[in-house]
Prior knowledge:
The protein is mainly beta.
Amino acid sequence: MTRTILILSLLLAATATAQPTPRSKPATTVGTTTSYEGCTKSWAFACNKPDGRGGRYGTAHEMTHCERYTLQPDGTFTTRRQVGGSAGTYTIVKNTVTFTSPNQDGTTHRFELVLAPDGSTLGTMKRL
């Protein structure tokens, strides 16, 4: 009898551990605050400037423009640019991040960027 109870309890234990565990829902936001930044270069021109001797000249200088996206675990994001920025919400589905932010006229602006599988890049921006 004791042997039968022991065998039954072993079988029950084996059956219980063999049950599949419920799948966890994939994350739709980042786990910790994460920032991505991308920079581009352009040229600024100033043409037809007076040279002080009655002549005119043009100049050019290189400018760097950077944009930073900061994603929060609560599903919100902010952007920072040389001029201005924005804020809104985001969701991650597979490797696509969908951003939604309000426009001044009450409509919403929605766009998507691809997130690298290892999280190292968002679109062309690199994780900081």
